[in-house]
Amino acid sequence: MTNHLAHSLSPYxxxxxxxxxxxxxxxxxxxxxxxxxQKPIFLSIGYSACHWCHVMERESFENFAVAEVLNxxxxxxxxDREERPDLDDLYxxxxxxxxxxxxxxxxxxxxxxxxxxxxxxxxxxxxxGGMPGFVPLLTRIAExxxxxxxxxxxxxxxxxxxxxxxxxxxxxxxVPEAPLFEAVLAQLRRxxxxxxxxxxxxxxxxxxxxxxxxxxxxxxxxxxxxxxxxDAMWEGGMYDHLGxxxxxxxxxxxxxxxxxxxxxxxxAQLACCYLAAYQATGEERYAQVxxxxxxxxxxxxxxxxxxxxxxxxxxxxxxxxxxxVFTPADVQEALGEADxxxxxxxxxxxxxxxxxxxxxxxxxxxxxxxxALAPGDDRALREALRLWRNRRVRPGKDDKVLASWNGxxxxxxxxxxQVLGDTRYLEAAQACAAFLxxxxxxxxxxxxVWRQGRAHTxxxxxxxxxxxxxxxxxxxxxxxxxxxxxxEALGEALLARFHxxxxxxxxxxxxxxxxxxxxxxxxxxxxxxxxxTLAARGLLRLSRHLEREDFRVAGEGALxxxxxxxxxxxxxxxxxxxxxxxxxxxxxxxALSGQPTDPAIREMLNEVHRRFLPGRVxxxxxxxxxxxxxGRGATxxxxxxxxxxxxxxxxVTSASALAALLQxxxxxx
Length: 669
What we know:
Layout: H1 11-15, E1 24-25, H2 28-37, E2 41-46, H3 51-61, H4 64-73, E3 75-80, H5 85-99, E4 106-110, E5 116-120, H6 134-147, H7 149-167, H8 179-191, H9 208-217, H10 220-235, E6 249-250, E7 258-259, E8 262-263, H11 264-281, H12 284-301, E9 311-312, E10 315-316, E11 319-320, H13 328-335, H14 337-347, H15 375-389, E12 397-398, E13 401-402, H16 403-420, H17 423-440, E14 441-442, E15 445-451, E16 454-458, H18 461-478, H19 481-497, H20 531-546, H21 549-561, H22 563-568, H23 574-584, E17 588-593, H24 599-611, E18 617-621, E19 639-644, E20 647-648, H25 655-665
Parallel strand pairs: 1-3, 2-3, 17-18
Antiparallel strand pairs: 2-4, 4-5, 6-7, 8-9, 9-12, 10-11, 13-15, 14-15, 15-16, 17-19, 19-20
């Protein structure tokens, strides 16, 4: 038994290809069918690593009673939210407006004209725990469509009008000013959990952008909040102490029990956070976490062609977390009695357990004083247990390559090389960029999705912008003008395809797209920075390298456009505030004269990257790319110029002298 999803590329859609529900992928055929038959659309949106998506499939979409009602009365459409974030954003707004909450799987009922009139998230087949049963709900909606279609159409029309109103952006006329940073830092201080770190209660999500902003703009006391949060996330169960990388979030307020799915975008951004903490503190533990996270991406999410896969499931063998949890007996089988006893004490694995069925999530919180393993033993035992764990059935992997998430991974690998000096990360960044250019850059536009040798779906704003910034990070790592030239082409595509020249900012989709109710202009930062945040940050950084005034104006215009919203709700714009910090902070240039391959140039560049976050310092190779400030050209000698505005200090010729100059400027950069 197969349905219309059988020829899809998406692993999520293929998971539903054998359901008795007559699923269709989103597209002309399904939308035309709904119009021709005048049936409502049941739209189900989820993603491959989603635990509750798997639950609803088993309980409802494999249920023949559910399928019978859906197939008779509805046109059922399944969407992978990772392939179509535009549809997910639009209809999630509808569900949140209707119910006050959202999540996945998302269930939305639409008219044949794509206007939503009812929605929710997970529904069991029969009423349970205060939730309406799916079969009675479907039956009731079908009855209303037959008996009171006019009422449902009117409800849909009103909801669509409300969604349009909510999506309107009250464009600002000036860029917000520096006091806004103090306002958002005050909000973060009030919500900070002093005991466990993080901001707010359970469930706790890793707030990458809050940490970045605190490290950039906060006081010493504020930075202690960021450091406490990073320490607690790493010590707790959300971090995979055996294989590296982080789970999506913690279900409790103590970072102990994770929701076990592992996403590329989280790990790319968290690697950058730990790299920034290492730059700020010099503490080796942050370098270790960053290194292990990047190594996880290379080992477990890397595609042979150079890109990175999207995610790993929370579930294996139908159970959430089964791959990741242990009993003392498991550890003893893997390590032997003596080493197992030491490991269990150090990593909180007990007979009673801290998870379901007496099993334990591996963590460092309860390590007694004096029980911590010596670094060499710690690494060896963790690696031995990881290899033993690999004998288990591994969680499913979504092996599609997404442009925007790969842009984030590209930045993480490039920064990993900059800060840690490991050439494996530079080579991975170069391979990722080459893959994206070869497989997804077609005819002056970026495609979003690649899997099994096939690329599809026109790229969105976030795709072009994330890859653009990743290329800037890569250029600042190897000084290869190829990456800067491609970033410039992406910047031009941003302006041509997504820019709102009249009001400022960028739309998430191109104007010609015909299967959306209306275009959105995304500003709120969620699990990844919004498309406008990515565009503003990338264009501002690129404009400094290329001296392209149009890129600077467009990037600044996005910040101006969302200025009123940032002032009303700064916590919702943490990533955009990081872009604002980049704009407002006085520019410091470090221009290096000499061949990029010269060891002396690399030594000087290492001094820059050890001290400053990306975007704080502009690093260029004058010999190959740009003239130096005040018309100074390349001299053939290895030299470094440190310039603030148009004022340049006398050039220095050694890394130690450059370090001294940078130290003088550190307080104001």
